[in-house]
Amino acid sequence: MNKIIILGRLVRNPELKKTEDGERVFTRFTVAVEQNFKAIDGTRKADFIPVIVWGKKAEIICKYLKKSDFISVSGRLRACSYDDAEGKRKYIAEVVAEDFKFITYNKKEVENEILDQVE
């Protein structure tokens, strides 16, 4: 089973992108997830987890969320490797989001848009 759930804050504003062929849209962003324990100096550290979201879900995230908003993401962990331009092997691990929930967002803006679509 490959299932992951994270809860954290967006590190920067998500941006909508298209694949090279222009057929699909996606967004990549990083979620800062606070660790469950404190460091020796009493501070909490965070893990910075890369996430990719495809299609309509990516459009929704880019439209409503911004840097520092809380988001919950569930999906699967994808790990792969490739050779960069210099021929060095690079490894990537990222969450491929299947579902998400807004924990914080501009509720008024979303409600107004839904009302506009109904009218």
- The helix-strand sequence is EEEEHEEH
Please describe the biggest sheet, giving its number of strands, its sense, and whether it closes into a barrel.
Answer: 5 strands, mixed, barrel
The helix content, as a percent range, equals: 10-25%
Report the β-strand fraction as a percent range: over 45%
Could you state the CATH homologous superfamily?
A: Nucleic acid-binding proteins
Overall mean pLDDT score?
88
Q: Provide the low-confidence segments as ranges.
A: 114-119
CATH class: Mainly Beta
Structure annotation, total helices: 2
Strands in their spatial order, largest beta sheet: 1-3-4-6-5
Structural class: alpha+beta
Give a short overview.
The protein is α+β, with helices and mostly antiparallel strands. Helices cover about 20% and strands about 50% of the residues. It has a single domain, classed as OB fold (Dihydrolipoamide Acetyltransferase, E2P).
What does this structure look like?
- By secondary structure, the protein is α+β, with helices and mostly antiparallel strands.
- The protein has a single domain, classed as Beta Barrel (OB fold (Dihydrolipoamide Acetyltransferase, E2P)).
- Helix content is 18%, strand content 52%.
- It has helices at residues 55-64, 107-118, and strands at residues 4-10, 17-18, 25-38, 44-54, 70-83, 89-102.
- It has a 5-stranded mixed β-barrel.
- Strand 5 (70-83) and strand 6 (89-102) form a beta hairpin.
- The longest helix has 12 residues, at 107-118.
- The protein is globular and about 50 Å long.
- The protein starts with a strand and ends with a helix.
